[in-house]
Amino acid sequence: MILAELLTLKRSDEAGLAAQLTHQLRALMSGGQIRSGAMLPSSRTLSAELDVARNTVIHAYEQLAAEGYLRLAPRRRPVVADDIEQRFAKPAPAPRRDAPRKPQLSPWALQLSGSDWPLSYQAGFRPLRPGLADAREFPHEIWARCLRRSALRRRFNDQTVINRPSLREALRDYLEISRGVRAEADQILILPTAQAALTLIAATTIVAGDAVWTEDPGYPGAAAAFRAAGADVVGIRLDQWGMMRTRAARTPKLIFTTPSHQHPTGRVMPVARRTELLAAAEPGKTWIVEDDYDGEFHYDSRPMPALQGLDREGRVLYLGTFAKATTADIRIGYLVVPPQLARTMEIAQRHLGLIASVHVQEALAGFMADGHFLAHIRRMRRIYRSRRDSLAAALARHLGPVLAAEVPPGGMQLIARFRDGAADQSAVTRLVAAGVEVRALSSLALERPHDHGLLLGFAAWRENEIGAAVRIMANCLTGKRAARG
Ligand SMILES: Cc1ncc(COP(=O)(O)O)c(C=O)c1O
Question: Average pLDDT, whole number, for the chain?
Fold first, then answer.
C-alpha cells in the first residue's frame, strides 16, 4: 500500500502540515497499520506524493524519531522502531474481582478475608467504642503550628534519616522519666503504628513454627502479626494480675504482654509477676514484647515502671503508640529494642518500608520539646479519669443488677460482665443496633471464647454522652426506660 493513500492533509488546518503529518503517522504506527521494521518512503518521495514541501516531511520524521517511533540514518529510508507493538499493545483486561485467584495468594492472605479489623470507621457518633482517644480534646491549633514549622524547616533539607534524632531523643527522655524505660536514642525506632512494631518484631525474630505466647483474651493485632510470620500462637489465660504463670513443653520464642494495662481487662501486672516473667524468659531463647499502648493514662496511683526498665539482659522489646496519647490520626508508633538488635532492626525497618513521615516526626519532636505533649496527657488523664468514674457510676445506677463493672486503675476502657454469666454476643448485637458500639469480650479470645462481657470505651466521650449511652444500654438490656441522671 502506498503510504500517501493513508494520509489526508488539510491545507486549511491550523495545526499546520508538519503537525498533521506527524499526528497521522503516529496514529498509524500506534494503531498497528504500520508495523515494526517497516520502511517508510524517503522524505523526497513522500513530499512528492503528498505535494508538500520536503521540509514538512523531514520535520515530521525528526519529531517521530525523537519520540522513539522511527529510526533515522543518513541516506537511508526511515524504519519503524522495533518495539512499537509492545509499546502499544492493548492492556490485558483488568482481572474480575470475583475471578478465582486463590492459588496466587499466601495462606496468610487467604485467611484475611475473615478478618474483622475495619478499614474505615463508620463516621458519626459511635459512643463507647473502645480503644479511642478523644480527638476533640487534642490541641489541633498547636499541632498545626508544629506541622507547619516542620514542613518549612524541611526546605533546607538537612540529611534525611529515617528515624529522626530529635524525636528519638524526645522519646528517650519522656520514656525514661515517665515509664522507667532505659535506652539510648539509637535503640528507638519510629514507626507508622504500634502494629508496625509488631510486624517488624515478627519478621525479625520468628521462624515458622516457633511458639509465641500471648495473653488470652488479648490484643488480636499481636496474634495477627505473629501468625503472619508463621508462629504457633498459644493463648495464656489471665488471673487478676495478668498473664498467668505457665509451664509449657516448648520454650516460646516470644512472649507478648501488656503489663501496664492488660488489653482488654485493664489489669496492672504487679512487680513480682513482672520479675517472674523476666525470669521465665531465658536470655538468648525467649524475647519479651511489652506493649505499653496506653501507659500514659493511670488514675489511682503512680504507674508501674515498664518491664523494659527491670530487664538487665536485653530481652525486652518495648513498644508504644501516639494513637492513644494524642489522636489516632497521628499515626506514629515506636519500638525500643535491646542494644544488640538496634542495627539489624533498623535495617529491617528500612527493608520493610516501615518508615514514618519525616514531617510528622519533626512536628511531634517539636510538640514534645515545647511541653505540649506532657501538658496534653496531664489534662487528658484528669478528663479520662472522670469519664471512667462517670461510666462506672452510670452502669451501677442503671444496670447495677445486670452488669458488674471491673473498674481499671488506668487505660481507656472497662469491662462489664453479666451477673448471671450470660454470653455477650447477642447483647452486643442489640446494643450496636441501638447505637452503642460496645465490643464483646469473647471476640478477643485467642481460640475458644471463655470469658464473656462488654468492653466499653470511656475515653472518647463526654460525661453527658456516656450517660446517654448507658441509658440506651439499660433500655436495651432491661427493657426499662432509664431515668436521666
Ligand atoms: C494493645 C494495643 N496495642 C497496640 C495497638 C495499636 O496501636 P496502633 O494503632 O498504633 O497500631 C492497640 C490499638 O488499639 C492496642 O489496643
Answer: 91
